[in-house]
Amino acid sequence: MAQQKSPPRIVVTSGDPAGIGPDICLALADLQLPARVTVVGDRHLIEARAILLGRPPPALDIRHVPLRVPSVAGRLDPANAAYVMETLDVALAGCRSGEYSAMVTAPVHKGVINDAGIPFTGHTEYLAERTATPKVVMMLAGGGLRVALVTTHLPLRSVPEAITRAEVESTLRIVAAELRTKFGILRPRILVAGLNPHAGEGGHLGREEIEIIGPVADALRAEGLDIVGPLPADTLFTRNVLEGSDAQVAMYHDQGLAVLKYAAFEEGVNITLGLPILRTSVDHGTALDLAGSGRADPGSLFAAVRMAAEIVAGR
Predict the structure, then answer these.
(1) Which residue, of 107, 204, 241, 278, has the fewest CB within 10 Å?
(2) In a shared domain, residues 36 and 104
(3) What is residue 35's predicted lDDT score, i.e. its pLDDT?
(4) Picking from 1-5, 152-156, 179-183, 246-250, which range would have the lowest pLDDT averaged per residue?
């Protein structure tokens, strides 16, 4: 008789204690999954938030990490930045040791972490640094889209110089490989946006498409990858162009994510491609004005946990 496999274990970080992270983590008690979910955070904070929201005591597996100072819903405090970072480190260590099969992150506030003197540009970059991963790719999925980014959290004026042949090529290779291994798509079709309006208008509105993006796409097509583009970003996301594609690669953050968040803001999932662990996340921020109000929507967190469970099961 075959031995029954135990359900995978997924670890969820509870995010900034002042934001909606604790609220939406509490809602995980209502989610039925073929996985065991552990929430990393301050047990007393989560219990107090349940009382504030009028919920019963949390029926959650909580891995306790203590707050540095008491937290008030909606009120950021740099003194708890080290607590936020510790929750990430605990979850990451558990994934690397094999204790957990995947890591799901609730939202943190980059500004208050930096205010505490801790350099932090985002989960994606932090996890790449902690795992010594030279290149990772941020991809958001939802609303029938899978949008990956060549550059992430950069000022707009810094984007053109960051669009290099090496960056475009490594992004496309990682996206193609991860679509095969994580999503089971044997030959993914990937649409690539240009950087400039009208994809450069034949060089009249910029030459990045001619000198950088186009040559990389040509080289990868010659290797057998199904790459389409560079395409004008304003028409790439139209129904006819999207048909039959498996992912879309944008050159910078708002070029791709404005469309994705319009299509699936309450159910979008952020996936970090290229890491040695599986990490998914919500696609929204801390929503301080909603913390403790009972109005926070857990849909994106539910989708992130479900996607992590599905990918683990597909392996």
Answers:
(1) 204
(2) yes
(3) 87
(4) 1-5
Q: 188 lies in which domain range?
A: 137-269
Is the same domain home to 179 and 260? yes
Quick one: pLDDT at residue 2?
A: 46
CB 301 within 8 A of CB 2: no
Q: Which two tokens stand for residue 70?
A: 């008491």
- Does residue 150 share a domain with residue 190? yes
Question: Which candidate, 129, 131, 125, places its Cα nearest to that of 108?
Answer: 125
Domain tally for the chain? 2
Could you tell me if 257 and 285 lie in one domain?
no
Tell me: do 161 and 191 sit in the same domain: yes
SS (H, E, C) 62-117: EEECCCCCCCECCECCHHHHHHHHHHHHHHHHHHHHCCCCEEEECCCCHHHHHHCC
- pLDDT number for residue 267: 81
234: which 2 tokens? 């304003």
* 185 shares its domain with 257: yes
How many percent of the chain have pLDDT more than 70?
98
- The pLDDT of residue 239 is above 80: yes
CATH number, domain containing residue 229: 3.40.718.10
Q: Cα 76 from chain centroid?
A: 22
Query: Residues 93, 167: one domain?
Result: no
The residues, any chain, with a CB within 8 Å of residue 243's CB and separated by 6 or more, are none
74-94 tens-digit pLDDT: 999 999 999 999 999 999 999
**pLDDT higher than 50, residue 142:** yes
One domain, residues 149 and 119: no
Joined together, the tokens standing for residue 303 give 């989708």
Residue 107 to residues 14, 96, 183, 186, Cα–Cα distance (Å): 8, 21, 24, 32
